[in-house]
Write a structure and sequence with these properties.
single chain; alpha+beta; four-stranded antiparallel beta sheet; 9 helices; 11 strands; elongated
């Protein structure tokens, strides 16, 4: 296991995160000094659904996915996390076991913030508590939209919405880990169905599928399909 980055690295990471905006330098430094560091290999679980929660964590490097896993091993991706994001706030506030599983998609470094230190900030810093609650509300809205998509839209419509939502400009960049299996897990389906949906959108001239990216060729057509 590699050595953790300097504490100054975590201080800078926290100050750049909207959760911790407005906190004084000494408060952020005190929080960072009590954090613990952990490296995770690709495919390793950061935390497991049903296990006691360690509370709020911050991703220093790499990518994670938050998933629900069925008894047969099938996954439903709830969200992807990139470097700089804080996560697992719900378990922090509710004092309940983890409600989902977090898995590293590639080698990742995570800071786990001390639970009591963060709870102390929530009691002492109303603005911090409001930002945390606002973020949780945004995630709740995203989960409601996910339920809506899974229950009311066909796979092609869900795929169209996903491409539009995740594209930067007209390009959805796909890191090495972003396989069709991961795409299927986001859409609540299986790989074969995703392959057919991608082929269909490409045949209709709406997208172009390349090895490391999906290019939008007809935004208006894709938006009509997603509506």
């Amino acid at each position: 296991m590699s050595l953790p980055p300097p504490i100054a690295t975590l201080v800078a990471l926290l100050r750049a995160n909207s959760f911790f905006a407005g906190l004084s330098e000494p408060v952020v430094k005190s929080l960072a000094e009590r954090a613990t560091w952990r490296n995770y290999g690709a495919g390793e679980m950061v935390f497991l659904e049903g296990e006691p929660s360690s509370g709020l964590s911050v991703l220093q490097s790499g990518w994670l996915k938050i998933v629900k896993i069925a008894p047969d091993g099938r996954e439903q991706v709830l969200r992807f996390l990139e470097a700089g994001e804080a996560f697992n706030a719900l378990a922090l506030l509710s004092d309940r076991p983890n409600t989902a599983t977090a898995i590293a998609l590639e080698p990742a470094g995570v800071w786990h913030l001390q639970r009591e230190a963060v709870l102390g900030l929530l009691r002492q810093q109303p603005d911090f508590a409001e930002r945390l609650l606002a973020s949780m509300a945004e995630h709740l809205v995203a989960l409601v939209k996910l339920v809506e998509d899974l229950s009311l839209r066909p796979v092609t419509g869900r795929l169209a919405r996903l491409v539009l939502a995740q594209a930067e400009g007209d390009v959805l960049h796909r890191p090495r880990w972003y396989t069709q299996a991961e795409l299927a897990a986001q859409l609540g389906t299986v790989t074969d169905v995703v392959q057919r949906a991608l082929s269909g959108l490409a045949a209709d001239g709406l997208i172009e599928v390349e090895r490391n990216q999906i290019v939008i060729r007809d935004r208006a057509g894709l938006e009509a399909l997603a509506a």
